[in-house]
Amino acid sequence: MESKRQQKMASLLQQELAQVMQRDLPHLFGGGLAPSISMVKVTPDLGQARVYLSLLLGNDANERLEIVRDNAKAIRQALAKRIRQTARVVPELIFFHDDSAAYAAHMDQVLGTLDIPAAPKDEADASEEKPARPRLFKGE
User: Fold this and answer.
1) Average pLDDT over all residues of the chain
2) Coiled-coil ranges per the record (predicted)?
C-alpha cells in the first residue's frame, strides 16, 4: 500500500511528466504525438519512479518506448527544472509500456463477436402480464 507521500509524489510526477513530454520535449517524438502517462508508481524512498506509458496511436510502440528510454536523462533534467521548488530529489525514471487500454479494446472485440442466444420464454409468463401475488393465508 502506498503512503500519502508516495501518492502525492506520483501524482506530481504524472502531471509534470505529461507537460514535459508535450510542451518541453516534443521534438523527441518526431512531430508525432507524445505518449500519455497512464500511471506512475514511486518506491517508498522516492528514489525511483516507474512510469507507465500508453502508446496507443501507431504500430511502432516498441520503437517509441525505446526513444523515451534513450532520452530518459533529458526527460529527467527537464522534469527537474519544473519540480525543483517542490521536490528535494528527482527520482530515477524507469519507463514501461502500459497495454491495458489495448487489452480492453481486444476484450471488447472478443465479447462483441460472441453469439449469445436469447433466453427462452416460458408459456406461463407469456399468458400473464403481472406476476401472481403470493398467498399468505389459505383463504386468500
Assistant:
1) 84
2) none
DSSP 98: -
State how far the Cα of 90 lies from the Cα of 46, in Å rounded to an integer.
8
Which CATH number do you get for residue 18? 3.30.300.20
Mean pLDDT of the 76-103 span? 90
Domain count, the chain: 1
* Parent domain of 63: 4-101
Please list, in sequence order, all residues whose beta carbon lies within 8 angstroms of the beta carbon of residue 18, skipping any fewer than 6 positions away: 36, 37
Question: Rounded distance, CA 73 to CA 90, Å?
Answer: 11
pLDDT in tens, 98-131: 888 778 888 888 888 888 888 887 665 555 566 6
Residue 23's SS3 state is: helix
Residue 114 belongs to some domain of the structure: no
C-beta of residue 101 within 8 angstroms of C-beta of residue 55? no
Q: Does 111 map to a domain?
A: no
Q: What is the pLDDT of residue 140?
A: 59
- CB 44, CB 6: distance < 8 Å: yes
